[in-house]
Amino acid sequence: MVVVSDVLIHILSKLSPESLLRFNSVCKSWYALINDPKFVTKHLLDSFSHKHVLLQRIITNNSGKKEHVFSILEFSLDRSVSSVYDVPLPFHEGPRPCLSYLILPDLDVRGHSHGLICLSDHNRDIFLCNPMTRQCRKLPPTILVIPEPEGRVSLRLGVVGFGYDVKCGDFKVVKVVNPWRGVVEYPARVEIYDLRKDRWREIKTLGDVNFLCHPSFDMYHEGTFYWLGIHLPSGKKAILTFDMSKEDMKAMIKFLIFGRWRLMEFRGQNY
């Protein structure tokens, strides 16, 4: 008996991540289906009907090695914690790319959405990871070609954001690259990575987006990514935003004073 494709997709999308990992080895067609970006999106959306909280911490194991550990807290409908489980990094070696070669203290969380996490290291490599299935994808290198009319031009990774575009039903990574040489800053360039297409593309932006942002001061909320950063030409702090669907990047507020600021969500509103 041949199972109808739509029925198979529906059944597999309801399974736990642990079961999906076991079914990866059933046959090539099942492996291709389970690792297809469309199916990954559907499974993530179906799996997270309850509230989850993701915690990141660095621990020292029995051998003295430092490890990044993601702890997932699952809340039931009455808002009580129903389960807590750790997902250690680096991931085990396997057919998918893994994080075993990364220098763990240099690993930054750049964003998360629907159970996927965007990570980057200080070599500016970017990864999309699913802690529940322990799968990870290293994103392709940049497509930007920077002219070098007066010597070598370096690329500074200004900001990185990650979120879900509800209009096209796909996950996106956005990054701002600041070309520079010595004390000379060139206009910033913006790239978007589409998970489904597995490739980068450059977009044009209106206004000045030459910002440098720390990954600890950003957040994603209802289709828009927010960064708190420094406007490089002026040195002033500002909030930079990016709409995942409209693909529009702009600076919201410029602060006249320096202080300790942090972006957060309170009762569905950004502060």
Question: In brief, what are we looking at here?
Answer:
The protein is 13% helix and 45% strand. The protein has 4 helices and 18 strands. Mean pLDDT is 73; it is low at 90-105.
Q: What's the story with the biggest beta sheet?
A: 5 strands, antiparallel
How many E-type strands?
Answer: 18
Q: Give the class from helix and strand content and strand pairing.
A: mainly beta
Alpha carbon gyration radius: 20 Å
Helix content: 10-25%
Describe the structure.
This protein is mostly beta strands. It has two domains: 134 residues, no CATH class; 117 residues, no CATH class. Strands 8, 9, 10, 11 and 12 form a five-stranded antiparallel beta sheet that branches. Strands 4-5-6-7 form a four-stranded antiparallel beta sheet, with no helix packed on it.
How are the SSEs ordered, and which strands pair?
Blueprint: H1 5-13, H2 17-23, H3 28-34, H4 37-47, E1 51-60, E2 66-75, E3 81-88, E4 108-113, E5 116-120, E6 126-130, E7 135-138, E8 154-165, E9 170-181, E10 184-185, E11 189-194, E12 199-203, E13 211-221, E14 224-231, E15 237-243, E16 248-255, E17 265-266, E18 269-270
Antiparallel strand pairs: 1-2, 2-3, 4-5, 5-6, 6-7, 8-9, 9-10, 9-11, 11-12, 13-14, 14-15, 15-16, 17-18
What distinguishing features does this structure have?
271 residues, mainly beta, 2 domains, 5-stranded antiparallel sheet, 18 strands, globular
